[in-house]
């Protein structure tokens, strides 16, 4: 099966629109929007919960230690993408972008 991921979503309305259009997962991000990263995760998680869908927290330079990744998960993300996995060595599972771990990541989101 195929998992459809909408990337760069930073608002409740954007996440709802993505889910209604068929997305299974949204990547909460605020690359070009002047709102806190945590707010983007929170808003996307609200929509995901209502729709029974999932949220990935995209790093964007905001996750610099394990506490930040954990906070993303506590706020509502189902998974976290990090740009520097060396900072997160204490976690059980680190998925590295671009090294063929995408299928494994999708299993954990289902």
Summarize the structure.
With 110 residues, the chain is of the alpha/beta class. The chain has helices spanning 12-20, 37-51, 66-75, 102-109, and strands at 5-9, 25-28, 54-58, 79-81.
Structural description of this entry:
With 110 residues, the chain is of the alpha/beta class. It has 4 helices and 4 strands; from the N terminus they run βαβαβαβα. A 4-stranded parallel beta sheet has the order 1-2-3-4, sandwiched between helices. Helix 1 packs parallel to helix 2. The chain is globular and about 35 Å long.
What distinguishing features does this structure have?
110 residues, 4-stranded parallel β-sheet, 38% helix
Which descriptor suits the 3D outline?
globular
Pairing-aware structural class of the strands and helices?
Answer: alpha/beta
- In DSSP terms (H or I, runs of 4 or more residues), the helix count works out at 4
Beta content: 15-25%
- Mean of pLDDT: 80
Work out the oligomeric state of the chains in this entry.
single chain
The poorly predicted ranges are none
- Largest β sheet strand count, sense and barrel closure: 4 strands, parallel
**Using only CA atoms, what is the Rg?**
13 Å
Assign a percent range to the helix content.
25-40%
Number of strands: 4
List the helices and strands and how they pair.
Blueprint: E1 5-9, H1 12-20, E2 25-28, H2 37-51, E3 54-58, H3 66-75, E4 79-81, H4 102-109
Parallel strand pairs: 1-2, 2-3, 3-4
Helix pairs in contact: 1-2
């Amino acid at each position: 099966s195929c998992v459809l991921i909408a990337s760069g979503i930073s608002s409740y309305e954007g996440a709802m629109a993505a889910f209604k259009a068929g997305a299974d997962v949204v990547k909460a991000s605020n690359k070009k929007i002047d709102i806190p990263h945590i707010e983007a995760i929170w808003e996307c998680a609200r929509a995901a919960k209502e729709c029974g869908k999932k949220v990935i927290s995209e790093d964007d330079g905001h996750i610099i230690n394990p506490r930040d990744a954990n906070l993303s998960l506590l706020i509502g993300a189902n998974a976290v993408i990090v740009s520097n996995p060396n900072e997160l060595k204490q976690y059980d599972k680190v998925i590295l972008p671009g090294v063929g771990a995408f299928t494994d990541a999708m299993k954990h989101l289902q």
